[in-house]
Amino acid sequence: MEQLEADMAQMEKKKAKLLENINKGGSHVEITNWATEIEELTNNQASKEMRWLELSENV
Fold first, then answer.
1. What is the pLDDT at residue 13?
2. What is the pLDDT of residue 1?
3. 15, 20, 35, 48: which has the fewest C-beta neighbours closer than 10 Å?
4. Buried b (16+ CB within 10 A) or exposed e, 21-55
5. Rounded to whole angstroms, how far apart are CA atoms 18 and 53?
């Protein structure tokens, strides 16, 4: 569970950095890539959160 928590925190930091990049601006391609990466991180994070909930119910 601790690893999941660390992974989720790291993903949240990475998403914040990507959002910061988007807010600063960039080329259309850069912004699209950052947005795609945010979407992937969000999906991964949701999976990890579900796994965390499953594990926490068993504790």
1. 97
2. 81
3. 20
4. beeeeeeeeeeeebeeebeebeeebeebeeebeee
5. 26
Q: Which pLDDT score, from 0 to 100, does residue 38 have?
A: 97
- For residue 44, give every residue at least 6 positions away whose Cβ sits within 8 Å of its Cβ, in sequence order, or none: 11
Provide the angle, in degrees to the nearest 10, between the axes of the packed helices 2-24 and 28-58.
160
Give me 29's structure tokens: 């391609």
Q: How many helices (H) and strands (E) does the chain have?
A: 2, 0
What dihedral angle (degrees, nearest 10) is formed by the CA atoms of 9, 52, 37, 10? Answer: 20
Residues of the chain scoring pLDDT < 70: none
